[in-house]
Structure formats: C-alpha cells, structure tokens
Amino acid sequence: MKLIHALIITTFGCSVSRAVTTATPKECFATTEDRIKNLQPCSTTTDSQETWTLNLDCEPLQAIDGFGAAWTDATTFLFDQLSESDQDKLMTDLFTTKGIGMEFMRMTIGQSDLTPDSRWSFDENDGLPDKDLSNWSLTEQGERMRKWILRMGDYNPDILLLGSQWSPPGWMKQNNNLRWEFRDSYVQYFVNFLQAYITVGIELDAITLQNEPLHTAPLSGEAWTMFMDSEYAAILSNATFEAIRREGLSTKIWAYDHNTDHPEYPQYVMDNSPSVDTVAWHCYGGGFSPLKDFAAANPGVKQYMTECWLHETSGEGFFDLPQFIMRPIQNGASGSLAWTLAGSVDLDVSYPGGCEQCTGIVQVNQKVADYELTGDYYKLGQFSKFVRKGARYLHVDGDYVWDDGTGVESAAFVNTDGSTVIVIMNKFQDDLTVTLGGVDGGDVVGVVQGRSVTTWLL
After folding, report:
1. 299 — phi, psi (to 5°)?
2. N or C of the chain: less Cβ packing under 10 Å?
3. Per-residue pLDDT at 22
4. Contact 74, 344 (CB under 8 A)
5. In CATH, what class is 65-384?
6. CA 359 to CA 312: how far, in whole Å?
7. Domain 22-62+392-457 matches domain 65-384 at the CATH topology level
8. How confident is the model at residue 11 (pLDDT cuts 50, 70, 90)?
9. Is 158's pLDDT higher than 60?
10. Tell me, what's the pLDDT at 254?
11. H-helix or E-strand containing 362?
12. Residue 307: alpha-carbon gap to chain centroid
C-alpha cells in the first residue's frame, strides 16, 4: 500500500542569517492537558512574560514516512460492532486529513496478545503438524482483518503498511522456539499470507518475522509469543525474502521489532542478511539514543519506532505519546507507531495474560456500540495531520527538560510542498512566548500554552 514519493525540497523558510523582523505563525493548533483544546486552533498572542528561544537548523535530515497505530484482532472486533455510519466517520477521522490523516500503520499477522477470540493461527490444525500447509486458511479472524485493511485503503491508498507476526501455529514450536524441521513451512506460511492479500489488491510494504523475538512470556503467553535468536532471524530473513521474490512480490523484511537495549540483534541480522536494510524498534527498554548510534554505524539504514503502548486508564502521562512520537524522530527514525489503534472502555479485549491495560487512540463502548476519540488521538494528530509523507525532519536547537520533567521539546519538518511544521511540547504550567530563529524573512514569535502539545504551521 505505497507509492514512491519524490523528495522535492523547495525553499521552505529556513535561513542561516539572523533575522531582523518578526512574524507570528501562519496557523496554530494545540491539545492541552486539561482537554479544553483537542487539536484545535490556538491563539499565538498573550501577555505571557515567560520566554523561550528555539533555533531551526536548515539542514534537512531523514525522510518521514508517517505516524499511526496498530491494527489488532481487538480493533477489528470492536470496529465491527459500530454502525455503518459510525464506521465511515471513524475511518474518515483516522485516515484522511479531515481527521488526523495517519499514513503509517502496523497490523498483526495472526493472533496477538490483543486477541479477544480463542487461540488461532492460519493453520492451527488442532495442534497436529501440517508441514505442507494443506489446511492453511485465512480464517474468520483473518478475513475480518483483511476486510478492514482493504477498507482503510478506500480512505487512503498510500499508507505504509507493516505486518508483524506474534506466533506461528503451535505445532511449529517446541518450548516456544521454532522447530527447525518446519523452517520451510514457516517461510511458506508468510508467502501464503501475502498472497491472500494480493488477491484483493493489497501488497504489504514490509513484514517482521517475529514481534519481540527476545520476549520470554509465561505459559499463558505461549499462544502469542515465540523466541527467535538473531542467527535464526538472519537465516529466515534470507529464506523468506527469496521466497517472496520468487512469487513476484516486493514486500520487504524488516529486522528485529523489539527494544533498543539490544542493538546487536538487528546488527547481526543486517550483517548476515543482505536484503534487510531497515530496523523496527520498540520503546520499552534502552531509550531512544541507540537509534542515532545505530544510524552512525550503518549509513543509509532506515529505522522506525513500531511500538509504544498506550495506557490512558492506568497512569499514562499527558506527554507520553508525543514523546514516543517525537524522540525517535529526533534520533533518526522515519516514523513512529502507537500500540494500539482501538481498545475497549471495559478493558476486556485482550487474550488471557495479554495486555489487559492497553488502550487505543479510539476506545469503543461495546454496551452501547459507540466510541470516543481519546486524548492520544489528538496528540498523535498534532504530528500526523500536518507532517505529510515525504517530509524531511529538521533539527531544532534549544530543547531542555529538567529533572522534574518540566521544559520544552520540539521537532520541525519541511513538507514536499515547502511548508514548514514545528511541534512544540511545553511541559511548564505557564504559557511561554517562544521565539523561533533561523527562519527566512524573520523570527517567528508566538505563545505556546502551558502543558500543551502545539503545532505551528509557518
């Protein structure tokens, strides 16, 4: 589900000389912690006496492919319970610029820990080996996912789509590891899946062979996990890539799909799999700076933050989501994803032992077949609505966060049409008068509300 974008960098309002005039942002949109504003127009003038200075770096850095969230069985199960009109409105809100215009999405391949149904795969076969995959089937759950992915394309056909597997069929595993005698079956399992999508006109842009391959789960998690060391991952990446290409498909293999505290894992995969040039990271350990280090060691590598969870009902902070969108980008990522797209207000759609506390950017009330757009929806939209695919990231000097969590963080982008976007997190209680230097034609000066995520369009 992608088109190739030419990176057209035009004059975008960036200057290396100090400006002598000032202007206000062309447009301003904000989401505030008190929920008074939810991605709504904001004033840039006030009597604020508190000041902050940022400076735009003119050098365009990595291309941005988008921001978004993850489709799961829970998501499709919940969306199916909404009326047709609500479904249409919701998809418009999610995937068009009338809403937040997400352009990068992840989908689960088979079961995950956010599967409300019984244990399943595309070839569970009552636990009996099926080496030739003669009983492979998309299944009811798989058909439901494909239906919604196809429908997403009706609203935006140019979404970067990543598929991630949590576990192959149970009979392929022993002690939660792949039984090596079934490695060819494992590879063909992916080929069958990709072909099932091609039949309806969907070609996934990329897959990861194993979500969180270093994750060790309790017995209750064996249905939705599998351990895979880097040596197996490299061998299987090569084999799967070759099998996919023999079928005439262009889907890529991305490495890893786990935390940044073990960069040696994707490094080994890339060193031993010439076809792999992209890394998927998660944010649950290791911080974000390893992305910058990894890029320095591997020029030309593409990186994405493919999972950070949402827990709006169990202590999530207001700045958690904008931080895990912004900080990977500051360290070289080309996109960031939230886990997950939709949850239940009753927190009752996870597999036993799975992520019971996970919420989504959309929360569905099954009792009344209704939904709400959460604060995370609007905070994600501060990026995804305005930063379009093909934009380039611009570094901003002047960020600082104190030990108590107060401070300012920012990221700027230049879209392919030359427009410039800057997203600013003001973590102070008070409003700030922010001066943005380095802008062609004069400094840009405006007020950023306290405890807000604010987007300026220049």
Report:
1. -55, 135
2. N
3. 82
4. yes
5. alpha beta
6. 6
7. no
8. very low
9. yes
10. 98
11. strand 362-365
12. 6
Q: Is 143 one of the annotated active-site residues of the chain?
A: no
Cα–Cα distance, 93 to 70 (Å, whole number): 16
Q: What is the pLDDT of residue 58?
A: 85
Residue 403, classed as helix, strand or coil, is coil
CATH 2.60.40.1180 fits 22-62+392-457, yes or no: yes
Quote the radius of gyration of the chain (alpha carbons, Å).
22
How would you list the strands of the sheet with 370-373, edge to edge? 342-344, 362-365, 370-373
Amino acid at 376: D
CB–CB of 387/381 below 8 Å?
Answer: no
Which of 33, 103, 124, 212 is catalytic? The answer is 212
CA atoms 187, 303, 29, 390: torsion sign = negative
Q: Is the pLDDT of residue 46 over 80?
A: no
For the chain, how many residues are written?
A: 458
The 3-state DSSP class for residue 334 equals: coil
First-to-final CA distance of the chain: 30
pLDDT at 20: 56
CA–CA dist 306, 424 (Å, integer):
22
Report how far residue 382's alpha carbon sits from residue 407's, in angstroms, rounded to the nearest whole number. 19
CA distances from 380 to 94, 100, 140, 196, 323 (A): 10, 8, 31, 31, 10
CB atoms within 10 A of CB 438: 22
Q: Give kind and range of the element (H or E) at residue 149.
A: helix 139-155
Verify whether residue 212 is a known catalytic residue: yes
Domain range summary for the chain, segments of one domain joined by +? 22-62+392-457, 65-384
The whole-model pTM stands at 0.95
What's the rounded Cα separation, in Å, for the pair 411 and 425?
9
How many whole angstroms separate alpha carbon 382 and alpha carbon 306?
18
CA 363 to chain centre: 18
Which strand (E) or helix (H) includes residue 335?
strand 335-338
Tokens matching residue 188: 């063909």
Which helix (H) or strand (E) is 239 found in, with range? Answer: helix 230-246
